[in-house]
Write a structure and sequence with these properties.
With 365 residues, the chain is α+β, with helices and mostly antiparallel strands. It has two domains: 119 residues, NADH Oxidase; 182 residues, 3-Layer(aba) Sandwich (NADH Oxidase). Helix 1 crosses helix 11, helix 4 packs across helix 5 and helix 5 packs across helix 13. The longest helix is centred in the N-terminal third of the chain and has 20 residues.
């Protein structure tokens, strides 16, 4: 069944039932604010612990799998773990992206703890990306802590569309990049590296969209209906994929996991990528010295610090890592753009006229 047939079914449903089909259908996007706050409170955690861990959870992760868990040792002493049920073996077979996401989680945790007046002690336990116990965390109450504005955590949002082509202002680049000059490399619009990354991002998405293993994995993490979004509170929703209005209604009511395997779905994804890369201020590459667990965790913390700074400058970030995930595009990347260090993140950046509210779901475990 192709996209046109889906639309015909949707329209026909409304017409033939006199509107009853629409009234009984899944009419609106389920977003983060729809999660009942009472479900967050029903835990044995102390108040500060509950708040800190919940604020840690809006960290970014591939397909919004949220691949971390918390092992409770005693009050203010936890182990942050690597949840293998949230791995993405088709696009992240070595769990490199998983560890980067856990690093982003740890940065949120550190900022949230400072807001509550706690110093955080991290002790890395993992030797490999597959180890279950990743970091031992202890929180110590302190009067000499600089508080962090946690609204920046709450308001972080990945934006995929409606980027402007305006060049980044020098003041913005200084604010965002100066503290991480050794790890950040920006490729502005118009540069040959920018054009190369555009072309290779499209190619990598074409390869991945038609790689059945990767496409099936994607389908497993799309919460097509609001009922599934409510049940799982993770994954990709029509809201987080920015499928709004009538198109969103069609997807929520007529698409399912098998839909992603259809050629029209794959082709639409590639079309979206072509449109996305045609609008931006440039690409940001984030690098590390090596691929050790400690370096990956630190790199994940760096990307989260960046994410928490861009909104105030009206700049959006869209991680597009498919070049790294497909071997045929990854093997020539460093040589083609003249970079020797390990590239861990590829981010599309650009100004947006309006910054929307966060919508990606979060589990309340």
């Amino acid at each position: 069944m192709n996209r046109k047939e889906f639309l015909n079914i949707a329209v026909g449903t409304i017409i033939t039932t006199g509107g009853l089909g629409y009234l009984l259908s899944d009419k609106s996007n389920f977003v983060r604010d729809d999660i009942e706050k009472k479900s967050i409170q029903n835990t044995f955690l102390q108040a500060y612990e509950r708040e800190i861990l919940y604020l840690a959870s809006p960290a970014p992760s591939g397909h919004n799998t949220q691949p971390w868990f918390v092992k409770y040792i005693e009050p203010y002493h936890w182990i942050i773990g690597n949840d293998k049920t949230k791995w993405l073996p088709a696009v992240d077979p070595t769990q490199r992206e998983t560890i980067l996401s856990i690093g982003a989680f740890l940065q949120n945790l550190e900022f949230a703890a400072s807001n509550a007046g706690f110093e955080v002690q991290f002790d890395i336990l993992a030797k490999t990306n597959q180890d279950e116990n990743v970091v031992d965390v202890k929180l110590i109450k302190s009067s000499n802590i600089t508080s962090f504005d946690v609204e920046k955590i709450q308001n972080r949002r990945t934006i995929r569309s409606n980027y402007l082509n305006d060049a980044l202002k020098q003041a913005g680049k200084d604010y965002l990049f100066n503290d991480e000059k050794d790890s950040f490399t920006f490729m502005p619009t118009g540069s040959k590296e920018y054009q190369y990354l555009n072309e290779q991002t499209i190619e990598a998405n074409r390869i991945q969209s038609y790689r059945d293993e990767a496409e099936k994995e994607l389908g497993n993490w799309i919460r097509f209906s609001s009922q599934d979004a409510t049940k799982y509170k993770d994954g990709l929703t029509t809201a987080s994929m920015e499928i709004e209005g009538f198109s969103g209604w069609v997807v929520r009511n007529f698409y399912n996991q098998s839909s992603v395997m259809k050629n029209d779905f794959r082709d639409k994804n590639i079309e979206n990528v072509v449109n996305q890369v045609s609008n931006s201020a440039g690409w940001l590459l984030i690098m590390s010295k090596d691929n050790s667990v400690s370096d990956l965790l630190e790199t994940g913390k760096k990307i989260q610090r960046l994410f928490l700074k861009v909104r105030e400058k009206g700049i959006a970030i869209h991680p597009m890592t498919q070049i790294l995930e497909e071997s045929s595009t990854n093997q020539e990347l460093n040589k083609s753009i003249g970079i020797s260090n390990n590239i861990q993140f590829i981010l599309r950046m650009g100004y947006v006229k309006k910054y929307p509210e966060p919508v990606s779901l979060r589990m309340t475990r």
